[in-house]
Amino acid sequence: MRERMCSSAEQVDLLALAASALASSIVASRPIRKLALEGREQFSRKKLDGTIITDADGSSQRIIIGALRDVSKDVRIVGEESPDEMERSVHRADDAKVEADVAAADECERLEIFKMAQDELQQRFAAAWDASSPSAFAPHAIDPARIAVFVDPLDGTSCYAKGDFGCVTTLVAIILDNAPCFGVICKPFGQKDEPAILNSGCYAVYGGTLLKGAYVAGGDECQRSKIYRHTRTRFNANYTPDHDHDTQITKQQILHTTTETGDTTTEDDDDDDDVDDDLPILSRQNNRAIISRSRAGGVVRKCIDALADRNLLHREPIHVSGAGYKTLRLITGTDGETLWFFPKQGTSLWDVAAADAILRSIGGCLSDKNGNDIDYSKSRQNAENVEGIIACNDTWLHRECVRLFQEEQWDDDDDE
Asked: Are 169 and 181 in contact (CB under 8 A)?
């Protein structure tokens, strides 16, 4: 049996819920990889809405929701797979056998992962919040009516069904008072040049305003999160990196920002007090848009060209599949990944909630095409982002993108 991680039936320990979200997404990677190893990633079928589902989707969602329910039976949980589809999946004998085999073989590893998640998040939270401050956030007794959790058990299902695992992710997000405060983006098949979490074989990034930053599970704070944190604390020009902690942040990265007119500046040029809170963190010389190859025309192309004409974006985008992998690239990418512009239908709340949570904590923003916050109070039946999304790790560029879209009035139904 799983250990209970919450001591009160009425109130929710938000930190325990976040640890469960992280740990369960890692544990859920086991059946996803096991089914792929057996060649069963190709056993896909169509749901009633025409989208693809595999056995792995159901297995992953059951593991994650089960772990979340161990923390609270009362919080609202919205999974991509509907109750009807989950009921249909649970009767598949092979699917149930995979989950039972994984549970029996990896119980010690599962407990180790859950302990790692609990310990790591407690440390991150303690470092982020001064408990003695009157404004310190107390996460241990939250009314469950204020909380919602969104789960995408396997994002990039169509790629998974074809045996293309590089863009496959698992996404979990916690919403507090209709605002994302914690998100997990997990890659079940790992990340190139990055160590796997314990012996799980997967890689995960998590964070949000709950922790005031973004982190690699079992590893360090994400580079962009470090830069944003150091920039917002307004280090002066004499700042030097803390080599003992291997921050790898250069003075140029911290100081090289761009003004509202697009000109580069440093804190040597202007008084520290004049630096705007949400100025971009890095130079925009090599900013790149990330988009799906199949959706690179029409209004998306027009926006990229308009930003490139203003020297705010590279004219050639990076083609990336999967909502989760796109947003992971915004958070951890090293090729200038900056903007995901998709102002039309095609994503749902569970596709973007985790990214929304993490981007908020590293100086980014995710909104609909008009710059409005995403409404996470909508029902599962109305979870599609009908007004599209604009996700960016630079709030200034995000505003420029929204402004251009509104001024130009591009036809978002135009798919060239």
From this structure: no
